[in-house]
Design goal:
This protein is α/β, with parallel strands linked by helices and 334 residues long. α8 runs parallel beside α9. The strands form 3 sheets. The protein has a 7-stranded parallel β-sheet, with helices on both faces. It has a 3-stranded antiparallel β-sheet with strand order 1-3-2, sandwiched between helices. A two-stranded antiparallel sheet has the order 11-12. The protein folds into 3 domains: 57 residues; 86 residues, no CATH class; 170 residues, P-loop containing nucleotide triphosphate hydrolases (Rossmann fold). Helix content is 43%, strand content 17%. α9 links the parallel β9 and β10.
Length: 334
């Protein structure tokens, strides 16, 4: 199948572009609102068997369609089992499976990587070129303070001047925890009683730790909304892996509405169900770095589709899926 992405101001315009380009037999694989814009993105596919040629006649590749359909079914079954184990929401799972089966890769892990690359955006922070302060936000217990310490350590190792600001002054031990790290890194640490009192230094990469927040408390969100609305910071939502998929999606949508655009997963090493992360990213948040270890010096990884697939489909699962595909192929040959 041929996969193509369309961008338009409205869903109606995007759908018309799909019909004009791929014809009435096009399959809608996924739809998404683009962050930082008023555009929508529609991913569609069409099988060459149904693609109209320049003279209006259909190609005759339908002769091989039955075998290809069976292979797609086997691949879809492996990926569906994987997503079910991770408690991925039905709507998200359907998009991933649809995209994976039309990409054309023969192995399940390859198809899953391709689908994740197409459906989600991966944009790890480049600390050497980062201009705006990074504001770490999220629910209580998500791991924001440790994420700030890890990011500050990475900056120091890359010889990037870094400054840490904590607005998490009410939590017992919050400031002391950061102070212990910043003393070792020999970087400045500033306390701010409120987000409104924060000031920035142009000579530093500034990392801002915030107090855990209830995303369903509108009053508690107002100070956060004020600082993000100024456009002077890049806000990243720190979210632990293992949360309920629907809950993660709701939380992500709320932070998206405030102007948060980035998602930093934590606890990848201690979570076995990652459906919540896919649910959060399906809201439109962009995958940034991820925390995969309690080790501060090497606890962040630049997340991409391959790494995420490794967590979704560990090597043991890949061996099983490979055996399943081989068995199916032998049955066909016999």
């Amino acid at each position: 199948m041929r996969l193509k992405t369309f961008y338009a101001k409205t869903m109606t315009e995007a759908m018309q572009m799909v019909r004009d380009t791929l014809g009435e037999d096009a399959i809608i694989v996924a739809t998404r609102e683009e962050p930082n814009s008023k555009a929508v993105r529609v991913t569609a596919a069409v099988d060459p068997a149904f693609e109209v040629s320049t003279n209006g006649a259909q190609t005759n590749s339908w002769l091989q369609y039955d075998d290809e359909e069976q292979e797609d079914h086997d691949l879809a079954e492996v990926i569906e089992d994987t997503l079910l184990r991770h408690n991925v929401a039905d709507e998200v799972s359907e998009q991933i499976i649809s995209c994976a089966t039309v990409i054309g890769y023969p192995r399940a892990e390859q198809a899953l990587i391709g689908a994740l690359e197409h459906l989600y955006v991966f944009r790890p922070f480049n600390l050497k070129t980062q201009k705006k302060p990074i504001l770490f936000v999220g629910p209580s217990g998500a791991g924001k303070t440790l994420a700030v310490a890890k990011m500050a350590t990475r900056a120091t190792l890359q010889n990037v001047p870094v400054k840490v600001i904590t607005a998490d002054t009410q939590r017992a031990g919050g400031t002391e925890q950061l102070a212990a790290f910043t003393r070792i890194l020999k970087c400045p640490l500033q306390q701010a009683e409120t987000l409104d009192t924060i000031s920035f230094d142009d000579g530093y990469l500034t990392l801002i730790d915030t107090a855990g927040i209830n995303p369903f408390d509108q009053e508690a969100l107002k100070p956060l909304a004020r600082i993000i609305s100024k456009g002077t910071v890049d806000a990243v939502c720190v979210m632990p892996a293992g949360l309920d998929a629907s809950e993660s999606y709701d939380i992500a949508r709320i932070f998206m509405a405030l102007g948060v655009r980035m998602l930093m997963p934590t606890r990848l090493d201690t979570s076995r169900r990652l459906g919540g992360l896919l649910g959060a990213a399906s809201s439109g948040l962009i995958f940034a770095d991820a925390a995969h270890s309690p080790d501060v010096a090497d606890g962040l990884t630049a997340l991409n589709a391959q790494i995420l697939t490794r967590y979704l489909m560990p090597p043991t699962d890949r061996t099983a899926s490979s055996s399943h595909t081989t068995t199916t192929s032998r049955k066909k040959a016999g």
